[in-house]
User: Fold these one by one.
Assistant:
Number 1:
Amino acid sequence: MNYVEQINAAPTIDALERLRVEALGKKSAVSEGFAALKNAAPEEKAKIAAELNRQKEELTAAIGARRAVLESAEFEAKAAKEAVDITMLDFSDRGGSLHPINRAMEEIVEYFLGMNFELKNGPLVEDEFHNFEALNLPKHHPAREMQDTFYMSDGMVLRTHTSNVQIHTMLAQKPPIRMIAPGAVFRRDYDLTHTPMFHQVEGLAVDEKGAISFANLKHILEDFLNSFFGDFPVRFRPSFFPFTEPSAEVDVGCVFCGSKGCRMCKNTGWLEVLGCGMVDPNVFKAVGYENVSGYAFGMGVERLATLKYRVGDLRSLFESDLDLLEQFR
Ligand code: PHE
């Protein structure tokens, strides 16, 4: 095959480039022919030069034509491989949506804002004073064991509850106080109903002594739970928290079985949903408050969300499972 035939048959751009070097490069017959011109007989020079130029032009034109063919074939192959059929999926009705945890959180916050509570924020990395000591949980107090704390190297902890915001708020302002504090909290726990990071909404109301009673606490929590869950019974059960006295845990009638008894309520007919109580005098002492009374409560947002939306395994809410999440659109 002569060069023009080889060029026309070159299978790839690389192969074509090798042919170009061979046919027109410094060591090619054409280049050597030009170099030898000076030794040619004077009367022959013009003829030889014209022939060399003709060959050079013929080869250059053939290479250019072949290159165009190969480049367009390469583009077509790439386009075919990377093609996206934009008519295939219809995204027009697939708007995003709030994650069920955010949705529950928003609903809780909205309720209490409507009841004239003010929104507060507090740090996630906390010192032991705000997370424990000021909340009547001195060092070595056995109740600290109730909360499996993540300790940081410099005496700080990841807050184990949103109750630290009670302390920040009371130190920063004078009563009356009516605040809620939603946010992430952290405990060393992982099973069907516990994840190492979860969310709480804290509530605190403080006013002059005698102005706030347990009846006020009971009323607002019952009203909240009825608005959040609908028409389920609510009960207050005596309990213990170091920062409240008296303390109670609040249950709602099992939303899974209608209080008949099932696996979810461990056959009790009740589901625990939050903790609360009257602020312990030692907490007021720690923040320098005198002649006041108040109540506090704390609820787990994931707990409320899994019950409201009937999600069996809390961990599934953290797995970005689209089959689950798409049900909340
Ligand atoms: N901090 C408690 C907990 O995390 C909840 C709570 C808050 C209880 C306020 C009483 C009053 O379990």
Note: The mean pLDDT is 92.
Number 2:
Amino acid sequence: MRLSRYFLPVLKETPAEAQIVSHRLMLRAGMIKQASAGIYSWLPMGFKVLRKLENIVHEEQVRAGHIPMLMPTLQSADLWRESGRYDDYGEEMLRITDRHGRDMLYGPTNEELITDIFRSHVSSYKDLPKTLYHIQWKFRDEIRPRFGVMRGREFLMKDGYNFDLTKEDALHAYNRHLVSYLRTYERMGLQAIPMRADGGPIGGDYTHEFLVLAETGESEVFYDSEVTDLTFGDRGIDYDDHAQCQAVLEEFTSRYARTDETHDEAVFNENVPEARRRQARGIEVGQIFYFGTKYSEPMGATVQGPDGKPVPVHMGSHGIGVSRLVGAIIEASHDERGIIWPEGVTPFHAGIVNLKQGDAGTDAACEEIYRALAARGLEPLYDDTEDRAGAKFATMDLIGLPWRVTVGPRGLKTGVVELTSRRTGESEELSPEAAVARLAEIYAPHQAGSAPV
Ligand code: ATP
Ligand code: MG
């Protein structure tokens, strides 16, 4: 993409309404524009990041054996009356009446809708297990939308639902989600720690929230510092293997890590040596639940069991806050000059800065690097504007592309360009071909291909 043709409305001034750094940087970098309280338009660069996160989520869900689909945003109130949640949900639910006077709602979550789909089409235990998911906009009329996309009213969520014959199978689905979430967040360059949580309106005894540690996080958390040493990495996993998935759950959840809702000071003090006790703040980027037959029973989602008798299915639901993650990644990865995107989610792989626009040799060298990067499957953002070098660098730093290639007549005289890391600020002089090859090498582990959906 050439910057002269792109739509990147960066702001010089820091918007007064933004209280936290990710919100400020998303506005300044021209990623979002507020449409009304807690509702945002995703401008091209914000949308690109959002799409990258969606792709990672899809890839990891499909890898775990989960099946993508799409349910609508607007739902009929009748289904929610069946489960009993129409009255329970409270004012966060946006209720709408259509022209025929029918009660509708903008879905805050989808347990009822998916249970209805399931009961209409699945009748035998032989069709189990099934896990279906979608990535769809949700609406919750939050009393205090704030922090930009972190607590929006309209927000994008991946929500998945498992249907199993037995509790044991459903707990395997729970573990499978835990593993796939660990992989998902790591690919986004994040450490998200599973912590024991509270079921809230979704319900259930088994539930973990995934938290990214950050001072601006809304959740208060308590944990054994050893949990921050754990990484899933690139180890292989067989998602059908119950024991393997259970072992990962135990590895990642056996140490103390809880949100304030489930925190128990006495247990904390007894089980964690003082030097390892940590109290901090975190951003909730996902949650998994096993809730058994809470929805299948009242809604009649039963299957014929092996003995011919109808049994209600065991269910769980599993959410990832896709749009919140854009903010969470920025909270975890920025400096005073702007965003620093992890390679796995960056909107463009590298910026090309032309130090002397209009100089034939420099222009030609930039074009060649631009073409060569594209030929390697990488997407550069080429600043081909007439701006001064200082302004070009400031924009690149603000929008946070992990790598910058700086091209000027002085370097070209000796056949070199400069490759600079946004994270470390370190620069290296090398030939244009070597710079392209280096970038291809850096991004090779992140070129997972397009989502197999
Ligand atoms: P919170 O406690 O932050 O209100 P929740 O526990 O009610 O969230 P879930 O029902 O667990 O949310 O939804 C799954 C995920 O969706 C959450 O882990 C979070 O990342 C995201 N999410 C929830 N509410 C919002 C919101 N208002 N804005 C953006 N993302 C949200
Ligand atoms: Mg939650």
Note: The domain at 350-447 is CATH 3.40.50.800 (Rossmann fold).
